[in-house]
Amino acid sequence: MSLRTKQTKGFTLIEVLLALAIFGMIAIGVQQVFSGVVKSNEQTQEASESLKTLQRALIIMDSDFRQMLARQYRNGGEDAEEKLLEFSENLLDSESLGIRFVRGGWINPQQLFPRGEVVKVGYRIQDDTLERIRWMYPDDSSANEPAVMPIMDGVTDLSVEVLGEESWVKSWDTPLTMPKAIRLKLETERYGELTRIYMLPAQTLAAAGSSGVTQ
């Protein structure tokens, strides 16, 4: 009677190691694809939020600058300024150029809010953030602190030019007179240079003792 040797089939060590290596490469590939998808999604969300912030900032600025008025105002209870539009380096403690003016058209139905429909606003840069400053009234006192609202991060510089009689100029000292237009340039970390141009009420207010507004 012959004995038949029964052989047991299985995986060799080399086959096991090869399978592990294949599974490991597949896992690495899946992980890289997953990480890429997650990173792409984060970048998309970041870009979307940044774009929303930019759009919101431009809407706020457009509302202010398009409603600019030819009106005198007082700062901290001092005499009324003859400049209807102020802009200079370090104005409003800005780390760049600051700007201040009066705007109208800010609806206050039935005077429900503690402010007027004509208010004084300003813009400045602090810590690479564009900030909007708003006083409740054009003629404020030193006891009234303005409201400060950051509207856009990553803004490193603000510059202003105005259109005079014939050309664009970088300063405006003409008393009781508004220029024809204003050009704002924002230097941003994400979008580079952004430029906005607004037409202004090119008016000259009557001097003290007289009446009327000239065009």
Give structural notes.
By secondary structure, this protein is an alpha+beta fold. Helix content is 25%, strand content 30%. The protein has 1 helix and 11 strands, in the order H-E-E-E-E-E-E-E-E-E-E-E. The strands form 3 sheets. A 5-stranded antiparallel sheet has the order 1-2-3-4-5, with helices on one face. A hairpin with a 4-residue loop joins strand 6 and strand 7.
**What's the overall average pLDDT, rounded?**
84
Structural class by helix and strand composition: alpha+beta
How far from one another are the termini? 127 Å
pLDDT < 50 runs, ≥5 residues: none
What is the helical fraction, as a range of percent? 25-40%
Please give the number of β-strands: 11
Give the neighbour order of strands across the main sheet: 1-2-3-4-5
DSSP helix count? 1
The topology string of helices and strands comes to HEEEEEEEEEEE
Radius of gyration: 32 Å
Largest sheet: 5 strands, antiparallel
Beta-strand level of the residues, as a percent range? 25-35%
Overall 3D shape: elongated
Membrane topology: Single-pass membrane protein
Subcellular location: Cell inner membrane
InterPro entries: N_methyl_site, Pilin-like, T2SS_protein-GspJ, T2SS_protein_J
Main location: membrane
